[in-house]
Amino acid sequence: MGTDKAASSASQQQWWILYLTLLMAGLILLCDEFRVQHLHRWTAQLGVALVYSAFVLYAGKGKPLAFVSAALICLVVVATWVW
What we know:
- Helix content is 83%, strand content 0%.
- By secondary structure, it is mainly alpha-helical.
- The longest helix is centred in the first third of the chain and has 19 residues, at 15-33.
- It starts with a helix and ends with a helix.
């Protein structure tokens, strides 16, 4: 019984990564829409995506949710270039 509780609490603790990713993705999209000078250049957006992806992958410790979060932030940066 103790291992079931530990396993469920460990899986619930990783959801903060996805929530933080959605927050970052929203901020990047808003900055692109309002043309915030510091994040309007593609190199700045790429830098934010790479640093954030590295942080998420390190904090996620190889969990699938960390890979999904890193892919999501990269897709947001690509979406800002396309549209």
